[in-house]
Specification:
- The chain contains five helices and five strands; from the N terminus they run βαβαβαβαβα.
- Strands 3-2-4-1-5 form a five-stranded mixed beta sheet.
- It is about 30% helix and about 15% strand.
- It is elongated, with a radius of gyration of 18 Å.
- The chain is α/β, with parallel strands linked by helices and about 140 residues long.
Length: about 140
């Protein structure tokens, strides 16, 4: 899940922000081809070019810039929860929902060893993050 973040002194805090308001702000987000960025644009029901000022940088850099400026940052909720901000950065309340990121796992019908190992790593890493678990037999 993605969230929009601002610093504790932001003029955007303590109100529901509409997408039209965000279009006028400087937005810091991961690279344009990132799932986080594409999911945000899709959830906002907009086109990339609808926004006046989007800058692409890393999550860590987003947090540093947001902490010291009036910018808005787009990061994953997991990243937000794993970082310590001493209450300097807050999640922005919006009138639209940023949908959770979806991804899939490909099945290996040819039984390539490296791919089987990769699939096991994915399963083990994400096993506690899924609401539904599906077992496939081949």
């Amino acid at each position: 899940m993605c969230v929009l973040v601002v610093n504790k002194n932001s003029k955007l805090l303590n109100k529901k922000i509409k997408i039209d308001e965000l279009k006028k702000e400087t937005l810091y987000m991961p690279r344009k081809s990132s799932v986080t960025t594409m999911n945000f644009i899709k959830s906002a029901n907009c086109e990339y070019n609808d926004f006046n000022d989007i800058k692409h940088i890393t999550y860590s850099a987003i947090l540093e810039i947001v902490k010291d400026t009036n910018a808005v940052g787009l990061i994953t909720k997991e990243f937000f929860n794993n970082e310590c901000f001493n209450d300097e950065i807050r999640i922005l309340d919006t009138d639209f929902v940023i949908e959770p990121v979806e991804f899939g796992i490909y099945l290996n019908n040819n039984r390539f060893t490296q791919l089987n190992k990769f699939i096991e790593v994915i399963k083990n890493h994400f096993k506690n993050h899924f609401y539904d678990t599906y077992e496939y037999s081949t």
